[in-house]
Amino acid sequence: MSTTKNAAAQALAGDADIPAAQRLALYRMQYVIRVCEKRAHDLFLQNLVKGTTHLAHGQEAVAAGFAAAMNPDDYSFCTYRGHHHTLARGVGMLPVLGELMGRQCGLMKGKGGSMHLTSVEHGVMGSYAIVGAHLAIAAGAAWSAQYRGTQQVAAAFFGDGATNIGAFHESLNLAAVWKLPVVFVCENNRYMEYTPIREVTAVEHPAADRAAGYGLPRIVIDGNDADVVYRTAREVFAKARAGGGPSLVECLTYRHGGHSRADPAKYRPKEEVEAWMKRDPIVLYRARLLAAGVAEAQLAAIEAETMRTLDEATEQAKGSPPPALESALTDVWADGGASWRN
User: Fold this and answer.
1) pLDDT at 95
2) Of 36, 42, 185, 188, which sits most exposed with the smallest number of CB within 10 A?
3) Is residue 30 included in any domain, yes or no?
């Protein structure tokens, strides 16, 4: 083993708080997210995904790290860029790809599409296309858990652009005043759609630098390091369950592509993109595991198994029919239909 590998292995030996099995699970989930979203991109180019998609290439560590620290009955609220959080909570690749393709096998039977993934069974309480809207809803879910005494925690994931939305400040204030068990997680990928967040925000860290205004600690972490994310998530969830109130975490990360499939992202400096590409969370995490003594064959097996599952899911989704016409008004109103309106 090289000197570099020896040093890395010794460093990891002191990280006994994250068992080897947990690290492999974190790698597996990051890889699942990456290849599933890559497949969504390919299917879009084949005209099998309608509308557009908002991919999270490069942001996998945030979703994997937080999901790994959550209890099965905790709540996740995410944005239209929410495939990675949906997968991280345990939703399979088939229902996710099926939903993106508008097929009957989809998570919502093809009626929700890319921007509205929801699975109550997995604690995924919706992806929200209105920027910042879900922060208040997450606070409401946290209040419900507090009222019922269930020890559940709500986690709201949002981009840096949402920090300049009124709902961000209103939700943080109410959560702090009522000590709600909610964790607000900013995935700061530097751009609010096409505009650099630094050009329209008075502070360097749009989320963390506002935390003091609500009596919360300033938490800024490396969002491309799944171990750092996981450790932080464990701490803030434990605080929430113990009645310590909300937390605001800013994860520094970077999306590898544009805002959506319609965006070539040419507004980003070449040097900036190259620098962040060298900090690809999956590449870095794989190297860390190898340096710690994990066999290459073990990681290759995880990757091969994931690709087999992905290929099977893709073919099943392609073969699934579109939603039946008679299902158009189901799951829309509380009673399952629209007849009560007539």
Assistant:
1) 97
2) 42
3) yes
As a whole number of angstroms, the distance between CA 97 and CA 70 comes to 24
Identify whether 273 is part of a domain. Answer: yes
| Crossing angle between the packed helical segments 281-291 and 60-68, to the nearest 10 degrees | 60
How is residue 48 written in tokens?
């099998």
Alpha-carbon distance 188 to 159, whole Å? Answer: 6
Residue 13 falls inside a structural domain:
no
Residues of the chain with pLDDT under 70: 1-15, 335-342
Q: Round to whole Å and give the CA distance between 65 and 94.
A: 22
* Amino acid letter, residue 169: H
| 36 in Cβ contact with 63 (< 8 Å) | no
- Residue 215 is predicted with a pLDDT of 98
Question: What is the extent of the structural domain holding 40?
Answer: 20-318
Number of domains in the chain: 1
Q: Are the C-beta atoms of residues 62 and 69 closer than 8 Å to each other?
A: no
What pLDDT was estimated at residue 257? 87
Residue 277 and residue 279: Cα distance in Å, rounded?
Answer: 5
Detail the DSSP E strand segments found in 164-267.
Answer: 182-188, 191-192, 195-196, 219-222, 247-252
How far is the C-alpha of 25 from the C-alpha of 88, rounded, in Å?
A: 10
Give residue 75's pLDDT.
98
Domain CATH number, residue 70 = 3.40.50.970
Provide the pLDDT for residue 143. 98
CA distances from 301 to 9, 24, 35, 296 (A): 22, 11, 15, 9
Residue 51 is predicted with a pLDDT of 83
Asked whether the CA dihedral 99, 95, 123, 77 is positive or negative, the reply is negative
**Residue of 262, 306, 105, 327 lying closest to 97 (CA atoms):** 105
